[in-house]
Structure formats: C-alpha cells, structure tokens
Amino acid sequence: MKRTLLALAALVSMATPALADVPSSLETDTSGTLPEGLTFEDVTGVAGATPPKGAKHEVLRVMRWEERDGPRFAVFATVGKVGRKDDTKYESRVLYVTTFSESAQTFTQIRAIKEVSSPCELDLEARFIASSIRLTDLDDDGVGELTFAYVTGCGGDVSPTTLKLLMLEGDDKYALRGVTEVDPGTGTYEGGIYKPDFKKAPKAFLAYAKKVWDEIKRQ
Ligand SMILES: [Ca+2]
Question: 153 near 161, Cβ under 8 Å?
C-alpha cells in the first residue's frame, strides 16, 4: 500500500496553534485501498466489493493519524449510479466520510457522514474539494479535528450550488452550510454565504472553518 506523508499537515501546523500528537503521524492514501480489516460495507453500508451494473464504488482517500487514545482512520468514498428512463440518462451519487478507531485490526465506527444526491438528468455535481481536507488539533486536546467540504447540485448553468464544510472531532460534528461563490458572467460574484452550526464548539473551530470556507468557496 502506497502511503505518503501529507505535506499539508506541516503547512497547517504553521498557521494554527499546537497540533498535539496529530500532524506528525498523519498519513493519507489515495490508492483506493482500504486497510486490512475494513470493508467497503463498513464505510458505506453498501454491500459487496463488486458493484452491480451501472454502479461505481470508489474509495477516494484513506487517512490515518494518532490520537491520545490510539489510531484513527477516516475514509472518503462514493457510490455512483447511472440509470436510464426512456431516452433520458440519470446520474446519482452518494458521498461518504466515515471515521474509525482501530485496535488490533478491529475497527470501530466513530462517525458516519452520508450525503445523497438524487437522480439528476442534467450535470450532476457531487464531489469533495480535495484542498479542503485538513486535520488539526486547534484546542490541543489530543483529539484531531477533520475538516472537509463538498459540493452537490444538479444543473447546467453557472450559479451558486450547495457547499457544505464539516468539521468532525471525535463523534462531534460542526458545519457551515451554504453555497459556492460564482461569477455567472456578469463580472460580479454571487453566493458564498453560509449558516454556521458550531454550537458548543471551541471558538477557534468556527474561526478556522470560516478561513477554510473563504479559501474554497469558489471551487
Ligand atoms: Ca481537538
């Protein structure tokens, strides 16, 4: 299995407070290979290693890091489907992010995120923004915060589309929910707004999420 140290972790550590035990151990893997002992069904709830006709199962990224209580994994995956009704082609996709703790190759699910995009006959957009995926320990408690964002939408025109940025720390979830910022051709940007859901989060979490949002809102 090919694993490379995420250079991003070093950049993040310069811009944020101490990262406790997290960043030096962060590894990320985009080979599509799950660690031994973890199945696609564990990640997505979708059975079978072999997708049915018209479906595509993909593991996009596996991340591993050390927390104060041991190793943690996050798996980014998608299940896509293409179907036809009469002469119309429909595409749907589900995005998954599932986090696990691991002990002696036994994985225990911590948190599962599932975003369903219904069948779309136009241009389906349902994708993670790679540059949004970060790991921090902003409150220095030895528990990593995993930040990631994704866009979803069904359309053919240039207009703001749904953008969500999530931050997971253990089994806690915080979110900015809004839309992308685009220039529909008028020379003026539209959208880019969000509603924060960071109740009970340490203050630094929302500030960091806003910073990431500003960096990725046009993607
Ligand atoms: Ca933390």
Answer: yes
